[in-house]
Each structure stands twice: as structure tokens, then as C-alpha cells.
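Contributing new records

If you add data, match the layout below exactly. Sequence lines come first and carry their own label; structure lines follow with theirs. Keep one chain per record. Anything else will be rejected by the validation script.
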Amino acid sequence: MTREEAKAILQQMTTSESLLRHARTVELVMEAYANKFGEDADKWAVTGLLHDADYQEYPEQHPNIIVNMMRERGEEEIAHAISAHYTKWGVSYDTLLDKGLLACDELTGFVVACAQVRPQRLEGLEAKSVIKKLKQKSFAASVDREEVRLGAELFGVELKEHIDFIINVLQQYQEELLLQPEAGAQA
């Protein structure tokens, strides 16, 4: 599946700006990890882009709609990874792609949330600040901290290094993602 096809599917099913930005951020982080590990960057990016494509329109059936759509298109690896991006669904983690999506989904969203409450956004954001926010249960309360921990563990990455990696990737796209510093903000 091409990224253009994936973007068309996402845009058909999702209109929420925050969900579209989340899809884009996970796409970017997944692509960067694929490049780091010598994996198929397009497949990893498409998986990140589409993992929540059905959430807005079919929240009660998520992720079954997008998973079935991928299976109908012969994209079994992508379908399996999407079906496994939450540990409580009880799906096995068979590939690095499966583990990568789990590791990147919740934490990428959390890093974006951390950036959004700072005047300087991603500029100067450090892993230690993100880890401190993870300990504040009231901050971004919908983020499942156990999923963050399990994701990093299954993916085989140390949490601080994983956070640093995500921040570094997102900083390269901060203007597109509307995460650039506010005017006059100090880094």
C-alpha cells in the first residue's frame, strides 16, 4: 500500500485535526525507527498513519474496521500490527513492526501533549521532563502509563532514549505539526 492510498483512507475516515496530527506524528516516528532498524520505511509509516483511522467514525469497533480493510487489501502485516497496538486486546506481538507501533503510539501522543503546554513547545523539551509528567497521573490522564512502559519494554528500548528519539523526530517537523515555539518564547 502506498502512502497516498493510506492518506486517502485516513482522510475519508478522519476529520478531527487532533487525530490527523496524531496519525502524522506516529507515522513520522515509525518511519524514523524503520530507517534506524533497516526495516521497510513505507510499511512502518503507513502502519503509523492508519493505526487509529477508524477511531473517530467507529470508536466502539476500533480497530476492527481498519484492520479488516487492511486484510481485504492483502496487508496482513499492517493489519496485525494495528490489531495489536493496545496490550489489553490480547493480540500477540510477533514482529518488530507490532512492537514498534505499540511503543510509539501512546508515547508519541504523550510527548505532543507535553509540548503543547510549553510556550517553547518541542524546543528544549527533554526526556526527564516527559518522564516527570508521566508520573503526574492528572496530566494527559487518558494516556495509559502501563502501555507506555510495556511498549518500550517489548520494543527493547530504554524509556529515556525512546523519548529522546521521539522528540528529535518531531522537532524536525514542528512547523508542519504546529508545534513551533510561541512568539517570544525562550528555549
